[in-house]
Write a structure and sequence with these properties.
The strands form 2 sheets. An 8-stranded mixed β-sheet has the order 5-4-3-2-1-6-8-7, with helices on both faces. α1 (70-83) crosses α3, α10 (291-299) packs across α11 and α11 (303-327) packs across α13 (344-351). The chain has 15 helices and 14 strands. It is α/β, with parallel strands linked by helices. The longest helix is centred in the last third of the chain and has 25 residues, at 303-327. It is globular and about 60 Å long. It has helices spanning 70-83, 115-123, 132-145, 165-168, 174-179, 189-202, 256-264, 269-278, 281-286, 291-299, 303-327, 337-342, 344-351, 363-367, 392-404; strands spanning 9-15, 19-26, 31-39, 47-52, 61-64, 93-100, 111-112, 151-155, 211-217, 221-227, 230-234, 332-336, 374-375, 384-387.
Length: 405
């Protein structure tokens, strides 16, 4: 008699407005079985890239041609997985985990998706207009394809719901703020959760014993102060625009700049929105948002690239100092995401001059390129400086599996 199959696989979906990223993981050993991306959904030039990883394989398969919508995209993904014996009809599939950007205050933990949950995510569209609609589309599509399977929403904002009111509130009229859900929510929460826990493991300690400043530096960038495993402050706010200098976003700015641009430059709200979100940050300062290109230009003596780099690092350093004050004691500063993991000059510059706070990097250790979590601070440093590759998909899969198993 055949033994019953124990479902241990989780499919992680990250739905964008015209894209669908996915990973299939087996949670027995947290191993990846397949990864892929569908892009340009709804266009004649749609593209699906699928890579099966089970058994050590890395041979990509690619298909191009029109993929009309997310329903067609997920069916195409299902077909690719089925070719590898990993189809969505497999009894080994335990759940589907969805990245959802904004969960407001209602969702502080991974949540099994129901119609009521979906309705609340849709109610949050005004504060996440670029992300939540796409997330809802992906959820509805996958629920239609596998209505019998548990589906879980893992919210980018959830990790930050532990912030005290003093950190989460803006100093505006409280009735107006409450009426329109205006407060600081924070984003990149799955990354901050994963990296803060992985940093504690790197130090050989339990997360409850460690205070960490996490610097998630990608095209979007955010910082968090994590005390004993709980977020107590983060740099992004009502939207992902607040905080650090980013690839195309301004980060912190005097709110009156928007009024000034409207009155003096005659810009509309939509034009100002586009300026601050898509034409600012590094790209606004020097025309490039790729840190590798900026460093190449600096080496050639480009002053605009140098200025952009200096502004980027200055803001980073301000946040490190501020979060040090918020935490009172810091055990580690962890760099993660594309820039944080790969740009040694950013890491070195961000902590330069902070020796009195116990921060320093070892030049040789900092120069090493590796996909592993590692310390780059000298042994004498009071505060560890770490590079910790983030793994948001694994974090989503872990939270999903813990909830449904």
């Amino acid at each position: 008699m055949t033994a019953p199959v124990t479902p241990t696989r989780v499919l992680v979906l990250n739905s964008g407005s015209s894209s669908l990223k996915y990973q299939l993981l087996d949670m027995r050993e947290a191993t990846r079985l397949a990864v892929g991306l569908v892009e340009r959904i709804g266009e004649a030039t749609s593209r699906l890239v699928h890579t099966p990883l089970e058994g050590g394989g890395t041979q990509q398969r690619e298909r191009t041609g029109p993929i009309a919508d997310h329903d067609a995209a997920l069916k195409a993904v299902s077909e690719e997985l089925a070719q590898d014996g990993l189809g969505l009809d497999s009894p080994e599939l335990a759940a589907i985990g969805h990245r959802v950007v904004h969960g407001g205050l209602k969702f502080s933990a991974p949540t099994v998706i129901t119609e009521e949950v979906l309705a609340e995510v849709e109610r949050l569209v005004p504060v996440a207009p670029l992300h939540n609609p796409a997330n809802v589309t992906g959820i509805r599509t996958s629920r239609a394809l596998r209505p019998d399977l548990p589906q879980v929403a893992v919210f980018d904002t959830a990790f930050h719901t532990t912030m005290p009111e003093a950190a989460a509130r803006y100093a505006i009229d409280i009735e107006t703020a409450d009426a329109h859900r205006i407060r600081r929510y924070g984003f990149h929460g799955t990354s901050h959760a994963y990296v803060s826990r992985a940093t504690a493991a790197l130090l050989g300690k339990d997360p409850s014993e460690v205070n960490v400043i996490v610097l998630h530096l990608g095209n979007g960038a955010s910082a968090s102060a994590v005390a004993g495993g709980r977020c107590v402050e983060t740099s992004m706010g009502l939207t992902p625009l607040e905080g650090l200098v980013m690839g195309t976003r301004s980060g912190d700015i005097d709110p009156a700049v928007t009024f000034h641009l409207e009155r003096v430059a005659g810009m509309s709200t939509d034009e100002i929105d586009a300026l601050l979100n898509k034409k600012s940050g590094l790209v606004g300062l020097c025309g490039d948002n790729d840190m590798r290109e900026i460093r190449r230009r600096i080496d050639e003596g480009d002053e605009r690239a140098r200025l952009a780099f200096d502004i980027y690092v200055h803001r980073l350093k301000k946040y490190i100092g501020a979060y040090y004050a918020v935490l009172g004691r810091v055990d580690a500063v962890a760099f993660t995401a594309g820039v944080g993991e790969n740009a040694a000059p950013v890491r070195e510059a961000a902590v330069a001059g902070l020796e009195e706070l116990g921060l320093a990097v070892d030049t040789e250790l900092n120069a090493v390129r590796s996909g592993e979590a590692r310390l780059i601070s000298p042994e004498y440093a009071r505060v560890a400086v770490a590079v910790v590759p983030t793994d948001e998909e694994l974090e989503i899969a872990r939270q999903t599996f813990e909830l449904v198993k």
